[in-house]
Write a structure and sequence with these properties.
Blueprint: H1 2-7, H2 19-28, H3 30-38, E1 41-46, H4 72-88, E2 95-99, H5 105-113, E3 120-125, H6 128-140, E4 147-151, H7 154-158, E5 167-171, H8 198-205, E6 213-219, H9 224-234, E7 235-245, H10 257-266, E8 272-273, E9 279-290
Parallel strand pairs: 1-7, 2-3, 2-5, 3-4, 5-6
Antiparallel strand pairs: 6-9, 7-9, 8-9
Helix pairs in contact: 4-5, 8-9
The protein binds S-adenosylmethionine.
The site of S-adenosylmethionine has 22 residues, from helix 4, helix 5 and strand 3.
Length: 291
């Protein structure tokens, strides 16, 4: 795994999904299953609670700060996805646009893990506190001259941009289905609207030059059928990674759980339903190239 090459540090816990776990997934949602069957998917399983902030950066002396949004599994999976995008970029990516940058750990990880990388990053987030955390992580990593921090709403900002060639757009946007009318700010960093596609759909439909790379994080709950259709309309799929988490903090949340079960019943979400009734889901990371 990438981390080992840089630091000799033990990689975060990651186990190959067993055949039975894959079978459970097949039962969990056909859109997801069909999508996975078409591509070489890097499969795995995340053990709840096993990833710490120190696992997220490849250099032992760095002490990353995390944002109040602290779903570390998600950040870890997305870090590996951004790294996969940089490895794939041909011709090499010159600029990364990070929509919903949060702590910026994923782009820092990817830059530090990619040899000879001179990429510049525009980090966009609507949360000023998150941008503060981002700034301090970037400074601690010695990358300040490569970053620009932009306090903006991602879709409004994106709609003013015409993207240049050799850009890599990366996004781990809010993608969980959240019941409409939810006002509790705790859900803001993950609120992808009723079906989870509020941001995903905008990003996938934004005009991009042919060849633009898009590293997009989503999940088995964010209306996979719709997301897959949008992917297939405009992009070639370059890389897919999927990690199951048996017991997610959000799937067990009493406010979200009934809504997620309804979405699952409608076929607009694919939950992992464990024998004890607890719920899990699959993180899905895709590196896409605009056709
Ligand atoms: C799921 S977190 C991902 C954070 C980080 N990229 C990571 O992978 O760890 C989503 C981030 O998007 C930000 N965000 C939420 N809605 C946003 C919006 N409309 N515009 C810009 N940023 C937004 C949140 O503040 C949060 O930092």
């Amino acid at each position: 795994m990438e981390m080992r090459a840089i630091s000799g540090k033990k990689p975060p816990p990651y186990t190959r999904a067993s055949e039975s776990a894959c079978r459970a997934k097949r039962a969990a949602g056909t859109a997801v299953t069909d999508f996975f069957s078409q591509y070489q998917v890097e499969r795995g399983r995340i053990v709840s609670g096993s990833i710490t902030a120190r696992d997220l950066l490849p250099q032992p002396h760095l002490e990353p700060r995390v944002t109040p949004f602290s779903a570390l599994h998600d950040t870890w999976q997305f870090s590996r996805l951004v790294h996969a995008m940089l490895r794939q970029g041909e011709p090499p990516i010159r600029t990364i646009i990070d929509l919903g940058a949060g702590s910026s750990i994923p782009t820092i990880y990817a830059l530090l893990c990619t040899e000879g990388c001179h990429v510049r990053v525009q980090a966009i987030d609507t949360d000023e506190a998150a941008l503060g955390v981002s700034r301090s992580n970037v400074e601690a990593s010695g990358l300040s001259d490569r970053y620009e921090f932009i306090h903006a709403e991602m879709i409004a900002w994106l709609s003013t941009q015409s993207l240049e060639r050799y850009t890599g757009v990366v996004a781990n946007p809010p993608y969980l289905p959240v019941p409409s009318g939810t006002t509790d700010p705790r859900y803001a960093p993950v609120d992808g609207g009723e079906d989870g596609t509020k941001y995903l759909a905008h990003i996938l439909q934004h005009p991009m030059p042919i060849g633009t790379y898009l590293a997009l994080e989503w999940c088995s709950l964010s209306h996979p059928e719709r997301v897959i259709a949008l992917i297939e309309q405009g992009f070639d799929v370059v890389h897919v990674q999927a990690n199951d988490i048996d017991r997610g903090i959000y799937t067990e949340d009493p406010h979200l759980k009934p809504h997620l079960l309804r979405q699952h019943k409608r076929g607009e979400a694919a939950l992992i339903i464990n024998e004890d009734g607890s719920l899990g889901w699959t993180f899905i990371g895709t590196v896409l190239r605009k056709r």
